[in-house]
Sequence to fold (1146 residues):
Amino acid sequence: MIRGVIIMNDQGKPRLVKFYEFQPVEKQQELVRSIYRSRRAENVSNFVKVDSLFGPDVRLVYKTFATLYFVFIFDNSENELAMLDLMQVFVETLDKCFSNVCELDVVFNFKKVHTILDEIILGGQVLETSSSEVVKAVEEISKMESNGNSIISSIPGWQGR
Amino acid sequence: MGSQGGFGQSKEFLDLIKSIGEARSKAEEDRIVLREIEVLKARLSDPNTPKFKLKEYIIRLLYVEMLGHDASFGYIHAVKMTHDDNLLLKRTGYLAVTLFLNEDHDLIILIVNTIQKDLKSDNFLVVCAALNAVCRLINEETIPAVLPQVVELLGHQKEAVRKKAVMALHRFYQRAPGSVSHLISNFRKRLCDNDPGVMGATLCPLFDLITIDADKYKDLVVSFVNILKQVAERRLPKSYDYHQMPAPFIQARICMNGLEENLTALQNAYMDIPFFKEAGKIKLLKILALLGSGDKKASEQMYTILGDIMRKCDSTSNIGNAILYECVRCVSSLHPNPKLLEAAADAISKFLKISPEIAEQHQLAVIDCLEDPDDTLKRKTFELLYKMTKSSNVEVIVDRMIEYMISISDSHYKTEIASRCVELAEQFAPSNQWFIQTMNKVFEHAGDLVNAKVAHNLMRLIAEGFGEDDNTADSQLRSSATLKEKFAVQHAGLGHEKSSERVESYLRIMGEPKLPSAFLQVICWVLGEYGTADGKYSASYITGKLCDVAEAHPEDDTVKAYAVTALMKIYSFEIAAGRTVDILSECQSLIEEMLASHSTDLQQRAYELQAILNLDAQVVEKIMPVDSTCDDIEIDKSLSFLDGYVRQSLENGAQPYIPESERSGMSNISDFKSHEDHESSTHALRFEAYELPKPSLPPNVPPVLASSTELVPVPELSYVSDILQSATSAPHASDAGSSALKLRLDGVQKKWGRPTYSSSTPSTSSTDNIVKIQSETTQRDSVGNSDPKTRDVSYNSKKQQAVEISPEKQKLAASLFGGASKSEGRHQKTPKPQNHTSDKSRAAKAVDIAPVKTSQPPPDLLDLGEPSITTGGPTIDPFKQLEGLLELTQDATPVSGGGVGTADASDFSSLFANMSVSVPSYGVDNPVSDVINGNGLGGSTVESSVQQMSKGPNLKEALEKDALVRQMGVTPLSQNPNLFKDLLG
Fold:
C-alpha cells in the first residue's frame, strides 16, 4: 500500500503531508525532515529505499516539479514506476484544478489538494487513476461546497438505496 | 475552477503565510507560528466566532500542525465541526479529523456517531466524506458500528460512493480480516459493477483475498478474463486510457487476480487480444514471481506468457518499463529457463540502452573527480580507474596516473601509484614500445620507489625484444630503446641533445643527483648492452658517460656495479670486434678505484673487467658474445667439468663430499642457508611462477666465468656462491639459477613479470608470443563487445545545444570508458564502441521492435498526448520550437528530450529510411527522453510552449500570479513561481 504522500518545497517546508497510517506530529516532522535531507542530485535515480525510516521494504519515489518535491512513500506491493505515473496523474489533476498550478495554490488551497488526493488515493490504495474523473469529482464537490452556506439536504437524483 | 481570487482566503491567512515565507530562520518561523497558535486558541474557544470563520481557523490549524507545532487544543473543534450541517464545514471538519486524529484517539468515539449518521445521509458528498473518515479513523473495535452502513453503501446509486465503500471494506479487511470475511460475495457483486472505477477498486480487496487463498476464487477467473477482454478491446471509457494504454492499472489488477488462478485462461485471453501489449502487468508479475519461485511446474507454465510480455513490451513509457522491470524480476525468481534468461538479459540491456546518457554523466563525473582539487577524491577515482582498466583504456589511465604521480609528494602514495602503473602496464600494455616508454616515465619520477624487480622486467623486455623472429625489428627496438633511454635522460634535464653537446651533457649528468638509482641502473644496462650496437655512438663516448654515471653516484654501489658491467660489455664488444680499446683515463681511474673498493662485488667486477681487457679477441668473443642476453646456453649442472679436480683432490686425501642432508651437525646452518636463499629468491623473483623446464642460461659475465673452467680457477667457485648452490642444493635453486643468471649484473635477480607469464613455458620468446596472443584476444574481445553498427549515428543530433562539457573531457571519457560519451556519436557521426555490450541479436531485436513503433503516430510518444497539441505539433517546425524552448527554459536537459517526439512524419520516415543505423537509435532515443526527463517532461515542455504561443491569457494570468507570488514572498528563491507551466500544458 501507499504509506504516505508528501509535498514539500525546495526549502524543506512541507506543503502537504498525508500518511495513510497514523504518525504522531513529531514523527511526521522528523520524517519530512529526513526525507528532505535525503534529497539527491538530479542525475541519480529518484527511487530511494527508506527502510531506515519506515521499516523494511519501504521505498519512496520523489519528483521535482519546479519548486515542489512530490514524494510518494509505499511498500513492496506497489511498483516504483507506477507510482511515478500516479504522481503524474496527481500533478496533472492539480494542474487542471488550479489552472497553471503553483506552489501558492497548494499552500492556500491545501484543503482542496487534500480533496484531490482523497479522490486518487484512499486508505493507501489507488482509488482512481483517471485524472479527468478526479477533476470531475472535485469540481462537483467544490460546486456543492461553494453553493452558499448550503445546509445539507437531499439532492434529488443522487439518493441511492 | 482555478484558484479563487486572492486564493479565497482571508487577509489574516495570507499574512500568516507571507510572514512564514519571509521568515529567515527556524526560530523566527516558530515565533510566528506560536503567535498564530495563541490567536487560534483564543478565537476557537470564543463562542461568538462565526462558523464560516471557524472553518478557516481549522484550516490554519492544519497548516500550523503541518509545520510541526502542537495543535491538539483544536482537535475538539474539528470534531465539533464534523457535526455541522453545512457541507463545507462538515467536510472541513472531516478533513481535519482525518489528519489530526489516529484511530485510537480518545475523540474518535465522538465522531463514530457522526459518521454513522453521515453514512446514511442523502447527500453523496457527505457520505463520501464520511467514508474517507471511515478509512482512516475506524479501528477494529468500531468496525461493527459502521460496517452495516458501509455494506449498504455498496449498492449506492453514485459510483463514487460505491467505489469508496469498497475501499472502506478493504480497509476493514486490512485492519481486521475477520470482520469482513462474510462479505466476500459483496465484493464479487461489485466486480460486475457497471462503473469501471468501482470495478477497478474492487480488485484491490480481491487481490488481497486471493493472495491468501486462491482456491476459493477460482470461479472468478471467467469474470476476470471478461473484464480483461473488455479493457483490452477498449470498451472502457477513454478516460481510463493512460499513455495510450487501455487502463493499465486495471489490467494490472486483473492480471494479478486472474493469472494466479488460471494461467492458461489468461494466457489465452492474452493471445486473443491484440491490444493487450503494454498493460501494467506489474502486480501480475509480482504474483507470478511469488508463485513461480521454486515451483518448476508453475514456472514452466509461465515461460510463454513472460516471454510474450517481454517481447511485446515497449520501453517508450514509464509504464512499459515498469512492466519490463517486473518481468525481469519475475524471471529471475522463476525456475531458470535459459531462453527466458536471455530475454531478460536483453531487456536489461534495453534499459541500459535507454539511458546511455545516464552512464555518460557518471563518466563525466569521474573525469571531473580526476580534476578535482580534493586529493581524496582523486585517489578514490584512481582506485576506480585502476579497477576498470582494460587493454582499451590502459594508455589513458596510466598516463593519467603518471601525471598524478608526478604531481604528488606523498611518497607512500607515490609508491602505490607507481606500482599500480607498473602493474597495469605489465598487464595490459598494448605494445612493448609503449611499455618501455611508460616504464621510463615511471622510473624517471618514482624510480626509487619502484620495486627493483620492475627494473629487471624492463631490461628483460628490452633484451627479449618483441619476441618476434624478426631480428632487425629487434635491433631497431633496442636502438630505439637506447635512444629512448637517452631521451629520458634528456627529459630529466640532463640535456643530451646532439653529439656536439656531449661534454656539456656529461657535466649536466654529473650535476643531476636526482635521477633515481633504479632508472640509472636501467640506463647503464641498456647503454652497456646496446650502446654501441647501432654504431651511432663511439665506445669512448658511451664509456665516458658510464664513468660519469658511476662517479656521480659514489654512494650507490649498485649503480656503480651496473656501470662497470656495462663498461666491461662495451670493452669486450670492442675487443671482439677487433678494434683497439683505448680506455679513457677517467675509466681507468674508475676501475682502479673500484679495484680497491670496499664492496667485494665492485671489486670482483673491476677485476673481471681488467682480466677481460687483457684477453684476446677470440676469447672475449666467447665470453661476451654480442647481443646474446636472451640466448639459451647449456649449463652443466652436474658440474662434470669439475670431476677431474674432485678426483685429484680425493687422491690428495681430501674428504669426499657428503650431501647436505647427511651432514647432521651442519644441517641447521645449511638448511638455514638454503632456506634463506630460497626465501630471498621467492621474495624477489617468484621463481616458481617462471619455472623453466629445461635449464637455460644466457651468456653473461658471471655464469660464463663460472662455467668456463679455463678462465676461472676452481677456487673462484666460492664467490660465485649462487652457482655452487644451484648445483648442490635443491632443485628449485637450479631453476632459480637459470633465471637468476640470465642477466646477472649485480647479483640482483630479475624477471619479466606479466602475470600471464606464470605459465611454465620453456623459452622466453615463446612466452612473449603467448602474451601477445592473449593481449590480442582481449583486444578482440573488446572489439567484439562493442559492435559499432548498433551504435546509432543520428543519435542525439538534436542535442547539440546541451553540450556544456568540454570536448576534451568527453574525449577523455570516451577513451576511458570505451566511448559511450555522447560527443563522438553526436558530432563525428562515426560508429564507435560503446561500453555496454550490444551484440547482434539485440540489434536484430531492435529492428524487430521498430515496425511496431511505426504504427504509432509520433506525438503519441509524448507522455501527455493532449489532442490539441497532437494536432498542433506537426504544423510547427519542431526545431523552431526547440529553439524557442531553449530561450524560454533555463534548464537545458529536460528540453532536449522532447525534440524527436514532436518530429513530424518526414522526420520519422527519414529515421526509418536508414534502418540499419537509425532504428536502434530510435529505440534508444525516445526512452532517453522519457527516462531522463522522468515522465516525458521534455515532451510536455514542448507542449507548454505551444500552448503559450496559442493561449495569450494564460500567460498573462501566469504573470499576474507571478507578481502576486513575489508580493507574497512565499517562494523567494524560485525563479518560476508558475510551477507547472513548463511541465504541464
The mean pLDDT of chain B is 61.
